[in-house]
């Protein structure tokens, strides 16, 4: 479904695209760039492991909760205005992050930063959808999708360089000049013209229910992620997930009965739109959630620094810059569901290849073929997904469609991180038990004590424990280190295979449901 040629009255639309892309890049990269700074933050602010987890979670939870709300506010009061407000909040939040002198301050300021970041992500697709049309829309969405893929995977590269060259505060202070430049560009070049402004009052109850649903869901998953020894029946986990189900049911009831609902449920009558949000979820769960574990594997076990890890992961993210615009142009010619299936299958094949190449001696020299295959799929998947969503709804629904795609993707990341973490932990513990039994030359007392410590510390800390001075002083250090690496590999292989299956399932569903593109315009 195409717009009229209204956007041709805005000759500065390509400069507007730069502003939108910069905003999205900052918002998304701050979900991953902080990972490589955590050791420095821990030392500087005297933070515990739990404190460090909340540096990440405080951002991701608030980011997820507000995506739909910003989309609705953009429909009501203007997407350009809401985008600029979000940009101001994000930039101020970044400055406050850098000024934090305690870990509690950093948690609060990260949440403030996420309020703005959520607006930048939520409104981006709709701003492009109403600023471009026809072939130009496909190209513009392809470029923005390239930025999304690049920002998600390049966090370790940029963060590693900034932390090594300056300090952990620099990952936040860099947002200050970029934020000011982006704000000027947005003010000058993003058009105020909007195809449709939603009418009526703000559905405050709907907003409250949607925020409560997403908060309960994501927070429950975060609780499970942070306490891997808890079962799903634990009140602190099951209680939040049950609340999410109840609040979601109330939200749907509200949307069906309210005079001015927050969300137009009629969008889901389109199988293409439904397919687009489903593949967004699987993409978040199966690929974007995977990068955190890939970075841990390469830094903690293969032995690369943060900078070296990011540089090698550019083998994956770099394809977004090349293939994103190309895939965007092809969305005008090919059926979007088939394009998405092709890309998802490529990612799945790449992940299966990575699992086959993983061994206790493997390095990037072994992994690069898998990285390239994943990069080809990941670099080409976002344009047909966003184009399918935007072209399967009415122009006045584009703001909410943009918010839905972002929300499903972010919730998918939360699901993926938790379930991948469980698969990793289970595989790691199984691997420890299996490989420690083979250490016939190591005294049983040492094996028993180390096994207990390693299981309690978890897979992320295993390498640091086994390479501590105390362990290295023993004559069994090399054997123990090899056993722990093999145990982590076992869990990591489980993670890659799970993600591969998720992406392939998502690709099949996309091929079946999404009918836009090619000779099927709606």
Give the full name of the CATH homologous superfamily of the largest domain. Answer: MFS general substrate transporter like domains
Average of per-residue pLDDT values:
85
- Poorly predicted sequence stretches spanning 5 or more consecutive residues: 1-9
What is the element string, with H for helices and E for strands? HHHHHHHHHHHHHHHHHHHH
Radius of gyration: 23 Å
Number of helices: 20
Write the layout of secondary structure elements.
Blueprint: H1 13-29, H2 38-45, H3 49-77, H4 79-99, H5 103-129, H6 134-165, H7 170-173, H8 175-189, H9 204-226, H10 235-257, H11 271-288, H12 290-302, H13 306-330, H14 336-357, H15 364-391, H16 398-437, H17 444-457, H18 462-466, H19 469-472, H20 477-513
Helix pairs in contact: 1-5, 1-6, 1-8, 3-4, 3-5, 3-9, 3-16, 4-5, 4-8, 5-6, 5-16, 6-13, 6-15, 9-10, 9-16, 11-14, 11-15, 11-16, 11-20, 12-20, 13-15, 14-15, 14-20, 16-17, 16-20
Membrane topology: Multi-pass membrane protein
Domain Major facilitator superfamily (MFS) profile: 16-460
GO molecular function, one term: transmembrane transporter activity
